[in-house]
Amino acid sequence: MLTRHARALTLETMLIAGTAMILVSLIGLLGIGTYWHSSGFAALPNTLPLVLAALIGAVGAQNVLGGFLLAIIAGHEAKFMRAEQIGLLPFVWWAKHARGTLKS
To answer: Which domain holds residue 77?
Structure first.
């Protein structure tokens, strides 16, 4: 069942989806808190929005952590760009040659 969704279940997509859910949750909780403050901290007429905002935040956090778990299980190998590709060649040259001069 998960094999057809394997392309979408990457660390990056899980982190983006989880972070988006957490942000939506925080915005919802901020709105609920603002409403609660403006009503003089009276009892909320309905707790459903509060529960849904907390649930979305919890699922978002699980999504982020689940993305890391799937990356570990799948043997995810992070291949970062080489320094030459991002324009750090002078720094790389200096770092390689400074090692010999820093010995005490």
So the answer is: 3-101
Contact between 70 and 42 (Cβ < 8 Å):
no
Left, alpha or beta for 44 (phi > 0: left; psi -120 to 50: alpha)?
A: beta
Per-residue pLDDT band for 74 (boundaries 50, 70, 90) equals confident
| Phi and psi based region of residue 43 (left: phi greater than 0; alpha: psi -120 to 50; beta: remaining) | beta
2-34 residue pLDDT tens: 667 667 778 888 999 999 999 999 999 999 999
The C-alpha atoms of residue 64 and residue 18 are separated, in whole angstroms, by: 5
3 state SS of 8: coil
Secondary structure letter of residue 75 according to DSSP = T
Domain count, the chain: 1
Please state, in angstroms and as integers, the Cα–Cα distance from residue 99 to each residue in 73, 94, 95, 102, following that order: 37, 9, 7, 5
